[in-house]
Amino acid sequence: MSNNLVVVGSVAFDHVETPVGIREESLGGSAVYFSYSAGYFTKVKLVGVIGDDFPQHHIEQLKKHGIDTKGLVRKTNGKTFRWRGSYLGNLNEAKTLETHLNVFETFDPDLPEDFRTAEFVFLANIDPELQLKVLEQVRSPKYIVCDTMNLWIDIKRNVLLKLLKKIDLIILNDAEAKQLTGELNLIKAARSIQKLGPKTVVVKKGEHGALLVNENNLFVTPAFPIEKVVDPTGAGDTFAGGMVGYLSKTNDTSFKNLKKAVLYGTVMASFNVENFSMDNLFNLSQEKIENRVKELLENISL
Amino acid sequence: MSNNLVVVGSVAFDHVETPVGIREESLGGSAVYFSYSAGYFTKVKLVGVIGDDFPQHHIEQLKKHGIDTKGLVRKTNGKTFRWRGSYLGNLNEAKTLETHLNVFETFDPDLPEDFRTAEFVFLANIDPELQLKVLEQVRSPKYIVCDTMNLWIDIKRNVLLKLLKKIDLIILNDAEAKQLTGELNLIKAARSIQKLGPKTVVVKKGEHGALLVNENNLFVTPAFPIEKVVDPTGAGDTFAGGMVGYLSKTNDTSFKNLKKAVLYGTVMASFNVENFSMDNLFNLSQEKIENRVKELLENISL
User: Fold this and answer.
1) ipTM of predicted assembly, 2 dp
2) CA distance B123 to chain A (A)
3) Which of B99, B116, B188, B267 has its CA 20 to 30 A from that of A287?
4) Which among B301, B300, B234, B290 is positioned nearest to B267, based on CA atoms?
5) Residue in A with minimal Cα distance to B260
6) How many CA atoms does the CB half-sphere of A108 hold within 13 Å?
7) In whole numbers, what is the pLDDT of chain B averaged over residues?
8) Are the C-beta atoms of residues A237 and A245 closer than 8 Å to each other?
9) How far apart are the first and last CA of chain B?
10) Cα–Cα distance measured from residue B265 to residue B296, given in angstroms and rounded to the nearest whole number
C-alpha cells in the first residue's frame, strides 16, 4: 500500500432536489466525496477550505474515517461553499440553480509539509491554475490524476492543456470529453485526450458505465445495475475515490489493475447514488464493497 | 444445429439521411436485416411481402446467402414498403419522415408447409395480431422470439399482452421497454416484462449496449466500440439476427449461451452501423465475426 494519497478539491454544503425528495444543507464537495470513497482503500490526506460555519462534528467524522484533515483550512471571515442543484428534469445531469463560492473563491491550496511527499495525487475539479500550483508543491509524485469541468474547458483551456501534459490519468464525463476534444465519438475523444498528455483516460457515462483507455488498450464496463437512483450528486467524485483509492492501495497502475480499479470506482459510485448526499458512504464495509464487485463481475462475465 | 429458423417481418426500400450522407432506395426491412445477419449462423427461412417493383437480383442475393425465400410473396398490384428517415439530429434515434406501407399494409403471412415445422421463430416488428397468426401456423416451436414497437404498445396493447404470454424471448429497445411497463429504470422494466410472459428479455440501448435478464439472472454488456457510425438503420434487427441465429445454430438457450448470443448480436450490429443500409452484411466472414467477438470479449474482460 502506498498509503500516500492527497486530494485537493472543494468542501461544500449542497441543497439538492431529486425526483425522490429534497435534501438541504447536506455535506458535499468533490474532495469530501472523494475522501470518503477512497478512505475504504487507503489513507487519504484532504486539502480544502471551509468557512466559519462548518460544524466540527463533520471534521471529527472525517477523522474517524481515517482521513487526515490537516490540510482542511478554516477561514473565519466567510462561509463554506454552497451549491444548489436539481435533478428533477434529468437524473443524469444536475441543473445548477445557485452557486455561492464563499471562502472557496479565494482558495489557495497550501499543502502541509508531510502531504508534499504524496505518491498519488487527485486534483479534483478546481481551477487548473490551482491544480498546477498543487503539483508544484508535490515533490516526487508517482501518479497524478485529475478531473475538470465545462467551465475550465471553456474559459481556461490553455492552462488546462498545460496541466494535462503532467497528468497520468484524467477522469472526466462524456460531455466534458466531447467538449475538450470536439469529438462526438467517445473513443475518438479519449484517444485525442491521450495525445494531450495523459496515458490513461477514463470517460464516465453515468448510468451507461465507463470507458477506459490506457496506451493502446481499451476497456468498457456498464454501470452497476441500480434499481433506484435517489441522488446522483457526487457520483463522479465517488467513482474517482474508489478508482484512485484502489490504485493507491495496490500501488499498481498496470492496465490489468486499472481495469479492476474502474470496477471499484463503479461500485463505490453505485452505493453513493442509492441515497442522498454521501449518506451511504458512511457505513460501508469491505465485505459490502467486495460483494458488489463480485456481483458486478458476475453481471459482466460470460 | 437446429437449422430451423423462420423470420416474419418487413421487406422495404429505405431513404436514409445521416450525418455522413444520403442513401436512396436501399434494401431494408426488419426481416431482411435479420435474415442477412442470422444467415451467418444458420439457415434462415424468410417470410415477407414485396411489390411488383422489387428487383429479382435482390432475391438472388438472398438465396446466394443461403436464405430460403419461398415465403417471400410478390404482390403484383402494388409497390414494396418504403420508409424515409433521418438521423441528422440524433444518431441514436431515427426521425421518420415518410412511411408508405404499400403492399405491406395488407400483409397476411402464410407460411409455406416446410416452414411450419420451425423450432426457432423470430417475429420481427409487425402488428401483434399478425405475430399471433404466425404462431398459429407453427406446429411445435421450441423458442419464440419477438420484437415490437411504440405504435403497437400504444394502439394494440391488449393483443401484444396476449402475444407476450407465448414468447420465450423479447428483444426490444430501451424506449419501448419503458413505454411497455411505465418503468423508467431499465432493470425494473425488464423484470416487469418477464411477468408478462417472456422468461428472457433483452433491452437494447444503442451505443450503450444491451441488458439481458433471464429468470433471476442478469447480464450487461457495452456496445462494441465503434469509432464511426455511418447509418444505424437496421441495427436492432441485425442484433436480433446475430443473437437468434447463434441460439438456433447452437440449439442452446441456457443463460450461459444467451450471454454469448448477446455478444454475437452486439458484434453483428456493430458491423452493420459502420456502413449504409446492410452493405456490410453482404461480405462478412466467420473469421471477421469471431475476431470481433474476441475483441469485444477482450474489451470487457478483466
Assistant:
1) 0.83
2) 27
3) B188
4) B290
5) A302
6) 2
7) 95
8) no
9) 32
10) 12
Task: Write out the residues of chain A at the interface with chain B, using a CB-CB cutoff of 8 A.
Answer: 185, 187-188, 205, 208-209, 211, 218-222, 225-229, 256, 259-260, 263, 297, 299-302
Domains of chain B, start order = 5-300 (3.40.1190.20)
CA A282 to chain centre: 16
Residue B1, pLDDT score = 52
d(CA B109, CA B133): 8
Distance CA A250, CA A196 (A): 27
Q: How far apart are CA B65 and CA B63, in angstroms?
A: 5
Chain A residues in contact with B259 (beta carbon < 8 A): 302
- Rounded CA-CA distance A292/A270 in Å is 9
Which helix (H) or strand (E) is A189 found in, with range? helix A186-195
C-alpha cell at B280: 456490410
Would you say A165 and A197 are in contact if contact means Cβ atoms under 8 Å apart?
A: yes
Kindly report the pTM of this predicted structure.
0.89
Q: Which three cell numbers stand for residue A238?
A: 465517488
Q: What is the pLDDT of residue B91?
A: 82
Exposure string for B264-291, b = 16+ CB within 10 A, e = fewer: bbbbbbbbbbbbbbbbbbeebeeeebee
The DSSP annotation for A197-263 comes to S-SEEEEE-GGG-EEEEETTEEEEEPPP--S-----TTHHHHHHHHHHHHHHHHT--SHHHHHHHHH
Cα(A19)–Cα(A21) distance, integer angstroms: 6
The rounded mean pLDDT for chain A is: 95
Per the CB < 8 Å rule, is A208 touching B209? yes
Interhelix angle B30-38/B235-250, rounded to 10 degrees, is 40
Q: Which of A211, A260, A299 sits opposite B218 (nearest CB)?
A: A299
Exposed, middle or buried by CB within 10 Å (0-12, 13-18, 19+), for A12?
buried
The residues, any chain, with a CB within 8 Å of residue B122's CB and separated by 6 or more, are: B5, B6, B7, B8, B9, B34, B38, B145, B146, B147, B240, B241, B244
The pLDDT value given to residue B185: 87
